[in-house]
């Protein structure tokens, strides 16, 4: 199976409601779709989410990185040489993790198709069913309480509460949601870098003193501030999870060395795809650190790949935040992974199992 062509498309899918964090508000998925074609007629699919405020990746940069730098290295190469191909992707250029992720996802899709098995089996097997949390966007308190109750009614047992705009307001948000949910779902708090270390310690201690024990606190302080992450981790009982602070293995090793967090959130758009995500899970596992798997505003193409990885690494990846497809107003992906409320199930089809992508607009070379 030889790579003959790599084409790009744009996929725009409105979200059911605006997605709001301390970093940004977004109303639609607007992702670049990579299709890798082969001489055998097989096609592998990948997806890149341009999350400029987190990865620095924009549409233009993703398209340029793939079409002018990464793709020329891959044309004519054998899909069977997967590790050599991912090495070519990772060394093609610095950073650009979303572009690398999209290409790697398509390569792993093809590699699993070549072997006639779903990707999770190629990655080591497992039980192809997961349960994800759902994001409650940061809004006024009443809206967040209503959104949390609606999520509980739809069967979600874990809510990812976005905070980080203002500590006093954030405390009110969490207290009110905690009271309304009344133990029917666990609460994961994500400040998306919005607090200072001292604000984070003060806020979380107030919650703990009031008997509100969140499942975790995600990225309370600035991404680069590992000392700040450690300051918080050392002073609260609530487990602290690094998200924007860790992209790849180098950052994770430093985080572990400093004992700056308890959990790490792996995202393909940060790690540059599956090869580094596997390394992240293995490094964390080796050090007895729990992992979560997360996503940006993505559809069921790249999130499918993350789900396959989560299934194969279920012993290490114990928390799942793969709600991107569930936030979309409609489902562009046919086949593969089904996202039905909190339940994610993987079909027994080769690769990612994607049969068609609706609404894909081809980008000219
Ligand atoms: C969508 C997912 N549940 C999530 O919350 N991801 C965010 C970043 C998403 C974005 O801004 O595109 C996170 O974990 O910080
Ligand atoms: Mg986060």
UniProtKB/TrEMBL annotation:
<feature type="binding site">
    <location>
        <position position="24"/>
    </location>
    <ligand>
        <name>substrate</name>
    </ligand>
</feature>
<feature type="binding site">
    <location>
        <position position="297"/>
    </location>
    <ligand>
        <name>substrate</name>
    </ligand>
</feature>
<keyword id="KW-0413">Isomerase</keyword>
<keyword id="KW-0460">Magnesium</keyword>
<dbReference type="InterPro" id="IPR029017">
    <property type="entry name" value="Enolase-like_N"/>
</dbReference>
<keyword id="KW-0479">Metal-binding</keyword>
<feature type="active site" description="Proton acceptor; specific for (R)-substrate epimerization">
    <location>
        <position position="162"/>
    </location>
</feature>
<dbReference type="GO" id="GO:0046872">
    <property type="term" value="F:metal ion binding"/>
</dbReference>
<dbReference type="Pfam" id="PF02746">
    <property type="entry name" value="MR_MLE_N"/>
</dbReference>
<dbReference type="Pfam" id="PF13378">
    <property type="entry name" value="MR_MLE_C"/>
</dbReference>
<protein>
    <recommendedName>
        <fullName>Dipeptide epimerase</fullName>
        <ecNumber>5.1.1.-</ecNumber>
    </recommendedName>
</protein>
<feature type="binding site">
    <location>
        <position position="321"/>
    </location>
    <ligand>
        <name>substrate</name>
    </ligand>
</feature>
<feature type="binding site">
    <location>
        <position position="243"/>
    </location>
    <ligand>
        <name>Mg(2+)</name>
    </ligand>
</feature>
<feature type="binding site">
    <location>
        <position position="190"/>
    </location>
    <ligand>
        <name>Mg(2+)</name>
    </ligand>
</feature>
<feature type="binding site">
    <location>
        <position position="323"/>
    </location>
    <ligand>
        <name>substrate</name>
    </ligand>
</feature>
<feature type="binding site">
    <location>
        <position position="218"/>
    </location>
    <ligand>
        <name>Mg(2+)</name>
    </ligand>
</feature>
<comment type="similarity">
    <text>Belongs to the mandelate racemase/muconate lactonizing enzyme family.</text>
</comment>
<dbReference type="InterPro" id="IPR013341">
    <property type="entry name" value="Mandelate_racemase_N_dom"/>
</dbReference>
<dbReference type="InterPro" id="IPR013342">
    <property type="entry name" value="Mandelate_racemase_C"/>
</dbReference>
<dbReference type="InterPro" id="IPR034603">
    <property type="entry name" value="Dipeptide_epimerase"/>
</dbReference>
<dbReference type="GO" id="GO:0006518">
    <property type="term" value="P:peptide metabolic process"/>
</dbReference>
<feature type="binding site">
    <location>
        <position position="135"/>
    </location>
    <ligand>
        <name>substrate</name>
    </ligand>
</feature>
<dbReference type="InterPro" id="IPR036849">
    <property type="entry name" value="Enolase-like_C_sf"/>
</dbReference>
<dbReference type="InterPro" id="IPR029065">
    <property type="entry name" value="Enolase_C-like"/>
</dbReference>
<feature type="active site" description="Proton acceptor; specific for (S)-substrate epimerization">
    <location>
        <position position="267"/>
    </location>
</feature>
<feature type="binding site">
    <location>
        <position position="295"/>
    </location>
    <ligand>
        <name>substrate</name>
    </ligand>
</feature>
<feature type="binding site">
    <location>
        <position position="160"/>
    </location>
    <ligand>
        <name>substrate</name>
    </ligand>
</feature>
<dbReference type="GO" id="GO:0016855">
    <property type="term" value="F:racemase and epimerase activity, acting on amino acids and derivatives"/>
</dbReference>
<feature type="domain" description="Mandelate racemase/muconate lactonizing enzyme C-terminal">
    <location>
        <begin position="141"/>
        <end position="239"/>
    </location>
</feature>
């Amino acid at each position: 199976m030889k790579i003959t062509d790599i084409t790009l498309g744009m996929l725009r899918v409105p979200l059911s409601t605006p997605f709001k964090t301390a970093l940004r508000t977004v109303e639609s998925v607007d992702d670049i779709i990579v299709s890798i074609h082969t001489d055998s007629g097989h096609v592998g699919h990948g997806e890149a989410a341009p999350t400029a405020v987190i990865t620095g990746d924009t549409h233009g940069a993703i398209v340029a990185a793939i079409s002018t730098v990464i793709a020329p290295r891959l044309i004519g190469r054998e899909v069977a040489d997967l590790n050599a191909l991912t090495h070519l992707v990772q060394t093609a250029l610095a950073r650009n993790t979303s572009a690398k992720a999209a290409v790697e996802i398509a390569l792993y899709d093809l590699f699993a198709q070549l072997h006639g098995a779903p990707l999770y089996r190629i990655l080591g097997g497992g039980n192809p069913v997961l349960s994800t949390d759902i994001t409650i966007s940061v809004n006024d308190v009443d809206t967040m309480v209503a959104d949390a109750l609606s999520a509980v009614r739809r069967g979600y047992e874990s809510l990812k509460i976005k905070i980080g705009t203002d500590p006093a307001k954030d405390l009110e948000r969490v207290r009110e949601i905690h009271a309304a949910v009344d133990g029917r779902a666990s609460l994961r708090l994500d400040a998306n870098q919005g607090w200072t270390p001292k604000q984070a310690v003060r806020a979380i201690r107030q919650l703990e003193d009031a008997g509100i024990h969140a499942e975790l606190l995600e990225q309370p302080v600035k991404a680069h501030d590992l000392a700040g992450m450690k300051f918080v981790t050392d002073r609260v009982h609530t487990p602290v999870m690094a998200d924007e602070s860790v992209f790849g293995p180098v950052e994770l090793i430093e985080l572990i060395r400093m004992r700056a967090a308890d959990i790490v959130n792996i995202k393909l758009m940060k790690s540059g795809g599956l090869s580094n995500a596997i390394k992240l899970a293995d490094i964390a596992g080796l050090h007895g650190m729990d992992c979560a798997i997360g996503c940006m505003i993505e559809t069921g193409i790249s999130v499918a790949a993350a789900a396959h990885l989560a299934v194969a690494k279920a012993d290490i990846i114990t928390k799942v935040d793969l709600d991107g497809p569930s936030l979309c107003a409609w489902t562009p992906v046919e086949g593969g992974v089904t996202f039905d409320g909190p339940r994610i199930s993987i079909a027994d089809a080769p690769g990612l199992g994607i049969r068609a992508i609706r609404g894909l607009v081809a980008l000219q070379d």
